[in-house]
Amino acid sequence: MKVVGIAGYSKSGKTTLIINLIKEFQKRDKKITVIKHRSCGLLKNCPRLSEDKNSEEHHCEVIPETDDKDTQKYSALGVSTLLFSHNEAHAVWKREFTFEELLSHVDTDIVVVEGNKGARNYPRIICTDGKESAENLFVGLELAQYGKKIYPLSNVPQVNDVKELCNIIETRGFKLPDLNCGECGYNDCYELGKAIVKGEKKIEDCLSLHNNDIKVWLDGKELPMKKFVRDCFHGTITGFLKSLKGVHKQGSVKIEF
Ligand code: SF4
């Protein structure tokens, strides 16, 4: 699965770009999911969505935002579209939903994430409209810069051709687990991600991603575990299961409480 973010401020062309990417990937017979993150929540009439950004009061109607215009545009193209926020996911779960948890329900070739600008575990294409937005959006994970008014950033290619952008996503998209375990030798996933974008490292350098035979999720967030802890968990659970009557062969295990 190739993951890429599309970051940019309002009216920077993100939605148009995503629509064009969807169309191009569909021509290539690729399944694509669009995940939209809205930091403000999924409710109608939220004052934080309006010009009144300083309002402390939250006057939202308690109605899920089912008429998000961008989401409707993506859905009309027949692709899976998920809308999520800090406290709920569109029409499905009324609780905090982490990006990782959401992604675990997705099984497509490509994932394009609109918004979620704070994410640091996958690369991004930035939609810019000049110096200020380019400098503010730059975090070192940029595969390309797209927009009418491009401000040159070192080592970030300027690409406005959608086919070329699709090629970049297909060949260079990735997602690190965001566990920040340090097993790759970097302090966190962000540092390895920047090295991958620079071409100095590869996704295979994330040891956690490739050695993980057990994952533990707490309240929807995967817990980072060193190899020793993983081995302890794995040994304890498999040992317990083997002692149960009728359990002869073990495939994947799911425990929830
Ligand atoms: S090994 Fe993987 S999960 Fe751990 S910090 Fe490095 S990139 Fe992140």
Query: H/E order of the elements?
Result: EHEHEHEEHEHHHEEH
Span between termini:
29 Å
The CATH topology annotation of the domain at 2-175 reads as Rossmann fold
Please outline the major beta sheet.
Answer: 6 strands, parallel
Tell me the strand order in the biggest sheet.
Answer: 3-2-4-1-5-6
Average pLDDT level: 78
Give the count of helical stretches: 8
Instruction: Work out the helicity level.
Output: 25-40%
Q: Give the cofactors and ligands.
A: iron/sulfur cluster
CATH H-tier superfamily of the domain at 2-175: P-loop containing nucleotide triphosphate hydrolases
Q: C-alpha Rg, in Å?
A: 20 Å
Q: CATH first level of the domain at 2-175: which class?
A: Alpha Beta
Give the CATH architecture of the domain at 2-175. 3-Layer(aba) Sandwich
Molecular shape: globular
Which regions contain 5 or more consecutive residues with pLDDT less than 50? Answer: 49-65, 91-95
- How many runs of DSSP E, i.e. beta strands? 8
